TrEMBL record:
The chain crosses the membrane at residues 19-39. It comes from the Bacteria. It comes from Novosphingobium aquiterrae. This is Type IV conjugative transfer system protein TraE. Pfam families: TraE. Keywords: Membrane, Transmembrane, Transmembrane helix. The lineage of its organism: Bacteria, Pseudomonadati, Pseudomonadota, Alphaproteobacteria, Sphingomonadales.
Length: 188
């Protein structure tokens, strides 16, 4: 009789163990499926910028509004400088630059800092228009570049600057920028 009770109890324990293994397998499969769904799903962040409406940033790609907002701020940041803010200016430009482009861009910025340090030359840029290309991650900004020596404006020239971007995850980073020549403007 005791053998029969022991056998029955062993069978119950065996059934419970098998049930727990089956439940653990189902939970592991469900966890793996949920993990894959989260890893492959586009992420979105809703920002409350100082633009006319809320802005959504998605890992699926750059929206035109987001590219416009970042380009506007980058144009002001990169093209407005004076001898009194050169270190801050260079650090701020490098902060928005992609790590892969920081070395080359820092060398270019250091040339400007060394040329302008100790002078009384400042410049600011007044944006007039923007041409955005979210597919190629470029943006062209046209406006008036004012150069000031001391307290006198010595030049006001209409210029176009091209900004090149890199987008990964939900982060837009500067890869390079520079003035567009008249020949390049005519090609477009």
């Amino acid at each position: 009789m005791e053998i029969a009770n022991s056998h029955a109890q062993s069978q119950r324990v065996l059934k419970q163990r098998n049930l727990f293994v089956a439940i653990a397998g189902v939970l592991a499969a469900l966890t793996a499926i949920l993990f894959l769904m989260v890893a492959t799903r586009d992420r979105e962040i809703v920002l409350q910028p100082i633009l006319r409406s809320p802005l959504t940033v998605s890992s699926a790609g750059v929206s035109r509004e987001y590219l416009e907002m970042v380009t506007r701020d980058a144009a002001v940041l990169t093209l407005d400088r004076s001898p009194s803010n050169l270190e801050y200016w260079m650090k701020s430009v490098l902060d928005i630059t992609a790590p892969s482009a920081q070395g080359r861009l820092k060398a270019d910025l250091l040339k400007i800092v060394n040329e302008q340090r100790g002078s009384s030359i400042a410049q600011f840029f007044a944006i007039q228009s923007m041409k955005l290309d979210p597919d190629n991650l470029t943006s062209d900004v046209t406006g008036d570049l004012h150069t000031i020596v001391g307290s006198k404006v010595i030049s006001k020239d209409r210029r176009t600057f091209r900004f090149k971007w890199k987008y990964s995850g939900v982060s837009l980073q500067l890869v390079g920028f520079g003035m567009v020549s008249k020949a390049e403007e005519g090609d477009q």
